[in-house]
Amino acid sequence: GAVVSQHPSWVICKSGTSVKIECRSLDFQATTMFWYRQFPKQSLMLMATSNEGSKATYEQGVEKDKFLINHASLTLSTLTVTSAHPEDSSFYICSARWDRAQETQYFGPGTRLLVL
Amino acid sequence: GQNIDQPTEMTATEGAIVQINCTYQTSGFNGLFWYQQHAGEAPTFLSYNVLDGLEEKGRFSSFLSRSKGYSYLLLKELQMKDSASYLCAGMDSNYQLIWGAGTKLIIKP
Prior knowledge:
The complex is a heterodimer. Chain A is mainly beta. Chain A is 0% helix and 51% strand. In chain A, strands 2, 4, 5, 6, 9, 10 and 11 form a 7-stranded mixed sheet that branches. Helices cover 0% and strands 57% of the residues of chain B. Chain B is built from no helices and 11 strands. The chains are: A mainly beta, B mainly beta. At the A-B interface, strand 5, strand 9 and strand 10 of A face strand 5 of B.
């Protein structure tokens, strides 16, 4: 199956700093990438959908100025958590999709963010 | 509105069979997914149903009834490693996944 990687897998940072998370599709071209957030014992919450070369579409309640998403190429999307605060501590997961197989999303392994 | 309902938690015995039910309401329908998620890990794909009926894949089977907006995941010969959360997700007309809250499955020896 297709492989999606995320980097870093773990990050601990101080409050007020910015954190960048990378999501890469390793063996296919991802026309669409999704960013999810998951708090403990809760299900996945879609934050935004990004299409290569265009602005991301954010879900209601997600601050686009705080969670910057860039999908500059067909194999890379980045999520930057700006001025992170302890309440941003969560498990961030990306998934990627190829437009000719729109029913299939391939998930990255996730990035655990802890803001002190 | 769009909604996915599944039980919060289930308990079963090693070696037994368990069925996890899911009802869905989506705007349009492009399929029903089941994912397995172990604690601290990302979801892994288990099954995809877009037509009515039962899809069998080893110890796991998934069933779909589009007229009833209903699906179930059937796990046979349960093993301790099957202890995980099982996420039901419906895909709407925009190919967007609508996620359930997940069913935590506890396997007892």
